[in-house]
Amino acid sequence: MTPRNFTRRVLLSAASLAMTFSALSLAQAQDIKKGGTLVIGTTQAPRHLNGAVQSGLATALPSTQLFASPLRFDDKWNPQPYLAESWKLADDGKSLTLHLRHDAVFHDGKPITSEDVAFSIMAIKANHPFTTMMAPVERVETPDPYTAIIRMSTPHPAIILAMSPALCPILPKHIYGDGKDLKTNARNSENVVGSGPFKLVEFKAGQRIVMEKFDKFFLPGKPYLDKLIFTISTDEQSLLLGLERGDIQMLPYAAGSVNLRRLKVNPNINLTDKGYEGIGSINWLAFNLERKPLSDVQVRKAIATAIDKNFITKALMGGFAMPVDGPIVPSSPFAVTDLVKYPFDLKKANEMLDAAGYKPGVDGSRFKLTIDYIPGGDEQQKNVAEYLRSQLKKVGIAVDVRASADFPTWAKRIASHDFDMTMDTVFNWGDPVIGVARTYLSTNIKPIIWTNTQSYNNPKVDELLNQAGQLLDPVKRRAYYATFEKIVTDDVPIVFINGAPYQTATTKKVGNVPVTIWGPASPLDEVYLK
Amino acid sequence: MNVLRFIAGRLLQAFLLIAAVVVLNFALVHAAPGDPVETIAGASGGMTEELKAELRQSYGLDQPLAVQLGVYLGRVARLDLGYSYYFNLPVSGLIAERVPATLLLVLCSVLWAFLAGTALGVLSARKPNGWLSQTITVLSMVGFAAPVFWSGMMLVILFASVFPIFPVSDMRAVDSSGGGGWRDVIDVAHHLVLPSITLGLVYLAQYSRLARASMLEVLSSDFIRTARAKGLAERVVLYKHALRNAVLPVITVLGLQFGNVMAGAILVETVFNWPGLRRLAFEAVLRRDYPTVLGVLLFASVVVLVMNQLTDLAYRLVDPRIKAR
């Protein structure tokens, strides 16, 4: 898809008539059976079900079923009408006008008006962890019940993507507008009222979520399913067994080559890796630039040269993961191929370290480093860290792999910048403004996990990122990001290794598996059981 | 009056013990690196400093530990276990939701282990050097030594793929919302088979050895010799005279162990995805969800204490030889 085309789609208001339906809807040709219960297995226990005040996949999965959003996206990054039947980003890029459907109601029967939209957007701005998403939003005007105008202080093209189901659930103002703190509102987990295709029946924290079809859902004839059940288990094996036995019909975010291979050979299971473009997950090696000798770019380049990404993705990850060379995932419209790359070459890596003046000592090692990793996902994290240790030994760098007992232990270390190198998995979240900039902006060097914990500081990169976020012309915007990508891959604060091999596994009975850019974290109103 | 004074003394002891347990747990839980805000930030895919500070403040984590402990003790004294940081739900509710599952699992496991263990112990005591006795001894050694999660996983593999007769995960069929009718009871019983076998195995080994030893001891006592001398059938001697006396120590151990069985359930609950207290506690530790961890630990220690006190009290009432100290 050309960027020009992408822009036009974003900028022009899409009339319902000219709707290009996603590939999903083309499946209409076949008969769609209605009814039935879809059981979805997940290892992620959501804190609650309100995606307006809680980010992350765990909450996005149920939240996108319960709450509708202004827009949704197809599998080619094109915005589609959802609660808004048309929309327009002003020429100056500082206001987005949403024209809402007139027939949408909440699960309690009350109509959805621009008041609810205004309330929700300001609530997200105030509470959602992704602050950059709504940062420029100043206020939301409501000239009539079905028109909402989002006013922004600066041009902010990312606002379109921020209207996605996973990022912008529209809450009923008459329930959440009681002045209580939204983050701890009891209605986030019990008696949740939204306007999505499914309504809540039962939520047992850490165990299961049961939803049933909402009869008055505003898209006629949808959803196709009668019931959705999310069964939560920390043990992926038991979910896998459930899928093989047919107790579970869908397993989103399946990863791990052993599991994927097992599912691949099973004739009753379908696997797809589509639907993960939006989250854009990258597995990478991050350096702490405050520490010597990692502050030396030549050392970082040498380490990057000593890493064989092909071996990692093919041998360690069973060929299910793809190498990634830049900060923006290849499936993003902003990705470019013109990057500074580091072809695997041990001899060259050794020469680079020699040239940089790091002579091997008596024990044959030039210097010592530690490497951390996120505990839990061995294949993406621990195994790669172990591989890096053996690999860097070949170029005279002694590496000590530091294990963390559990996630909080690791997070504490990284957040307090107490590390040399660490493996990490970080999401793009669709628009670089939301998920990419946070890692590289020098203004975001903070004692917090998933900020710029590398202490990377390049004024040129700051300038590019800050300006690109305000550029309305997508061609120009893409050019800015292209320059940014080139600089970052040249500075190597991070060695990008691979895209996470997420797949959605379903039994053969499931039709219309969600493959839009947000995949399973979007409304499942078109999924059916054959 | 003696009994009353005894009970009052015991109550005071129990109270102090619980307080000590709370303080110790509090110290242990807070000693682990990282904190709940870090975990919540992790689950959120990032968070601003302001938001984190706000969270820490609302949980009172910005206060010195001693102050936090004081606040928590004050709450516990008012029987308020507070709110889970992670789920933002009352801890008492989370516990109440999960007690039945754990209790059911533990009771079933202990019951079948007790019955089968006693039977095996008696069988092997009849001919202490026979092949049957040897086999039982070896098997019980294996059962005792095998790690719970291993035996659990073996059962899962066996029954999930080879003989798919029993469900291997959860307490109910995935699309069942409970309800407690007959169908629900059958469903739960069906799901209960494997986890309770797994958890029971460990205790089975203990009980069978205990039953065997105690049976052998009873069989060598005078009154058995008298019974045999009277010409009673071996069956009557064994089951009417000996077993009654031999089973007492097993019951004692069972009562005292009840609390420990609760602790043993954690791995089983994890392997079989059983929605019980232990899993809640384990996952809460991983999330540094202090109130939930402390709440579950407190609840478990109260259960152990109450069980022990009841055992003691029953002894005093039954056996006048035990004097109040």
Largest sheet of chain A: 5 strands, mixed
Chain pair forming the biggest interface? A-B, 57 and 51 residues
| Strand order across the largest sheet of chain A | 15-14-16-13-17
- Compute the gyration radius of chain A: what is it? 24 Å
Give the CA-based shape of chain B.
globular
Strand content of chain B: under 5%
Fraction in helix of chain A: 25-40%
Q: Counting H and I runs of at least 4 residues, what is the number of helices of chain A?
A: 17
Give a written overview of the molecule.
The complex is a heterodimer of chains A (530) and B (325). Chain A is α+β, with helices and mostly antiparallel strands. In chain A, the strands form six sheets. Chain A has a five-stranded mixed sheet. Chain A has a four-stranded mixed sheet with strand order 1-10-9-8. A four-stranded antiparallel sheet of chain A has the order 4-5-7-6, with helices on one face. The longest helix of chain A has 18 residues, at 474-491. Chain A has helices spanning 3-11, 23-26, 57-66, 114-127, 131-134, 173-176, 236-245, 257-264, 297-305, 309-316, 346-355, 382-393, 407-415, 432-435, 437-440, 459-468, 474-491, and strands at residues 37-42, 71-73, 79-81, 84-89, 95-100, 137-144, 147-152, 198-204, 208-213, 227-232, 250-254, 269-272, 281-287, 367-372, 397-402, 421-427, 494-499, 503-507, 510-511, 528-529. The two termini of chain A are 32 Å apart. Chain A is built from 17 helices and 20 strands. Mean pLDDT of chain A is 91; it is low at 6-27. Helix content of chain A is 28%, strand content 20%. By secondary structure, chain B is mainly α. Chain B is built from twelve helices and no strands. Chain B has helices at residues 2-31, 36-44, 49-59, 65-77, 91-126, 131-145, 148-162, 182-219, 222-229, 234-271, 277-286, 290-318. Chain B is globular and about 85 Å long. The mean pLDDT of chain B is 81. At the A-B interface, strand 8, strand 10, helix 7 and helix 13 of A face helix 2, helix 3, helix 7 and helix 11 of B.
